[in-house]
Design brief:
Keywords: Hydrolase. This is ADP-ribose pyrophosphatase. This protein is α+β, with helices and mostly antiparallel strands. It contains 3 helices and 11 strands; from the N terminus they run E-E-E-E-E-E-E-H-E-E-E-H-H-E. The strands form 3 sheets. It has a 5-stranded mixed beta sheet.
């Protein structure tokens, strides 16, 4: 048996979209089950996201902290954002987010990992990049708004972040997956063996 996810789509008898929001929507599908029965499945339709684990020369990860209303907490996170433009190259989106949220640029980019955040209730796909060779971005800082006006910044050593993850001190999905993937990659074939930044992404196909 090959341990690899594969595309598959079961028959949909009917579909409706009872809610359409600014960036996401909710869809209800009537899906035919293997035994022939039909079940209703509600899920959030999401454009997809990118996240950046930015690693500096002192082996520290660039973090931001901002308020997340659905969970009523201020969370430490890595820079991330929506794929606002259909078909947008995720690397370009990641570079934009790193600039806008942290005013930082990076010389080296690799794909760290790809994840579905909550596949039982949302179709969001996230590509997490590893960015190295960091430096201050040129030009004026991006004008922050809403939750971003209250953000805090930190650079935290990888080893400390791993301890924080395992202690249950940090909870953001992309931060947890990103830092543990980084450690796993180092213990495996090394960071230079990671996929190139323009590697195909079947979950969110893009133009080069």
């Amino acid at each position: 048996m090959t341990i690899k996810d594969n595309p598959e789509e079961w028959e949909i008898r009917a579909t409706e979209t009872p809610f359409v929001g600014n960036k996401t929507s909710v869809r209800t599908d009537e899906v035919v089950m293997p035994d022939g029965s039909v079940a209703r499945r509600d899920y959030q339709v999401h454009p997809g996201s990118v996240a950046v684990l930015a690693l500096d020369e002192e082996d520290r990860v660039l973090l931001i902290k901002q308020y997340r209303h659905p969970v009523r907490q201020k969370l430490w996170e890595i820079p991330a954002g929506l794929l606002d433009i259909p078909g947008e190259n995720p690397l370009h989106a990641a570079q934009r987010e790193l600039y806008e949220e942290a005013h930082v640029k990076a010389e080296q980019w690799r794909v760290l990992t790809d994840v579905y955040t909550t596949p039982g209730g949302c179709d969001e796909a996230v590509r997490i990049f590893l960015a190295r060779g960091l430096s201050e971005a040129e030009g004026e800082r991006f004008a922050a708004e809403h939750e971003e006006t209250d953000m805090q910044y930190a650079r935290v050593p990888v080893e400390e972040l791993v301890r924080r993850v395992l202690a249950g001190d940090v909870h953001n999905n992309c931060l947890v997956v990103g830092v543990l993937s980084l450690v796993a990659a180092r213990g495996g074939d090394g960071l230079d063996a990671l996929r190139p930044a323009d590697a195909p992404w079947p979950a969110r196909p893009f133009a080069s």
